[in-house]
């Protein structure tokens, strides 16, 4: 069932989204060659708890960390480690969630570690463009699959491919609410978008069209060929005036600053 948010609920969700946005900005600013993904995870948890919130991912279905740190060919759910130091040229996805006052926030950004290659930069720009296309499609009266089509068609236009095994989602009192938002498919299908819905479109885009694989840790998803992957996610509320990006395009801001 799709939960529609009241004005009061939307106010809480928006506050949580703003808090998450600031933490992601601060984390991205710490990304540099030599820092470990374990240290980024430690900072994320410390900052979330200092703000009076709780990590959303830690313990969720057994996930062992606060932050998902996915590097290069890792698509999502990379487990942070103090033994994994980032290197110049790496492409790093930071996926983070929190819970405060009974409601969740969830967003993801991809950042370059130092200078990155042309292929990585093109992939990031394609993924950001896919996310913006999805948000522009998120209008009252549209269908969920209109977002899916926007993501896939944009990615393929840039010469990249959507991840089909994972989806975007609704958010609110639960971390993952209906509706699910695939990153591929034709337009005009699925639930009709209504005022009060809060969505998390999250294009995961990669350089191959092969199925992903899950590593032996049971969490880390990687591309089939070892091709690079990128991942962005924003929180979007549906209003009569159009989509309201609660996380205020944090991915675009971070990428613009670092590039």
Provide an overview of this structure:
With 259 residues, this protein is α+β, with helices and mostly antiparallel strands. It is built from five helices and 15 strands. The protein has helices spanning 7-30, 37-50, 118-137, 144-157, 250-258, and strands at residues 54-55, 67-71, 74-76, 91-100, 103-112, 161-162, 168-170, 177-181, 198-200, 204-206, 213-214, 221-222, 229-231, 236-239, 242-245. α1 packs antiparallel against α2 and α3 runs antiparallel to α4.
Shape from CA axes?
globular
How far the N terminus sits from the C terminus, by CA atoms, comes to 41 Å
Helical residues, percent? 25-40%
Give the CATH level 1 class.
Alpha Beta
* Biggest sheet strand line-up: 8-7-9-14-15
CATH superfamily: Creatinase/methionine aminopeptidase superfamily
**CATH topological fold name:** Creatine Amidinohydrolase
Cα-based radius of gyration, to the nearest Å:
17 Å
Q: Secondary-structure element order, as H and E?
A: HHEEEEEHHEEEEEEEEEEH
- Biggest beta sheet attributes: 5 strands, antiparallel
Structural class: alpha+beta
Mean pLDDT reading: 97
Number of helices: 5
Number of individual domains: 1
Number of strands: 15
The appropriate CATH architecture is Alpha-Beta Complex
């Amino acid at each position: 069932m799709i939960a529609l948010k009241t004005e009061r609920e939307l106010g809480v969700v928006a506050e949580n989204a703003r808090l998450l946005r600031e933490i992601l900005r601060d984390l991205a600013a710490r990304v540099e060659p030599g820092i470990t993904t374990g240290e980024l995870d430690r900072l994320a948890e410390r900052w979330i708890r200092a703000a009076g919130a709780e990590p959303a991912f830690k313990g969720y279905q057994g996930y062992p960390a606060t932050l998902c740190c996915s590097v290069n060919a890792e698509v999502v759910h990379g487990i942070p480690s103090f033994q994994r130091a980032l290197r110049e040229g790496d492409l790093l996805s930071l996926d983070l969630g929190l819970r405060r006052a009974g409601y969740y926030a969830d967003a993801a950004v991809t950042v370059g570690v130092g200078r990155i290659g042309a292929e990585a930069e093109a992939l990031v720009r394609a993924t950001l463009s896919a996310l913006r296309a999805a948000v522009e499609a998120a209008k009252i009266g549209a269908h969920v699959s209109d977002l899916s089509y926007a993501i896939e068609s944009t990615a393929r236009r840039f010469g990249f491919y959507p991840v089909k095994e994972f989806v975007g989602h609704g958010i609110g009192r639960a971390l993952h609410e209906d509706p699910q938002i695939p990153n591929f498919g034709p337009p005009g299908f699925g639930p009709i978008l209504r005022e009060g819905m809060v969505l998390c479109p999250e294009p995961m885009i990669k350089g191959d069209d092969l199925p992903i694989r899950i590593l032996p840790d049971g969490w880390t998803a990687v591309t089939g060929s070892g091709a690079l992957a990128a991942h962005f996610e924003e929180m979007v509320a549906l209003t009569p005036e159009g989509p309201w990006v609660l996380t205020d395009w944090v991915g675009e801001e971070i990428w613009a600053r670092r590039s």
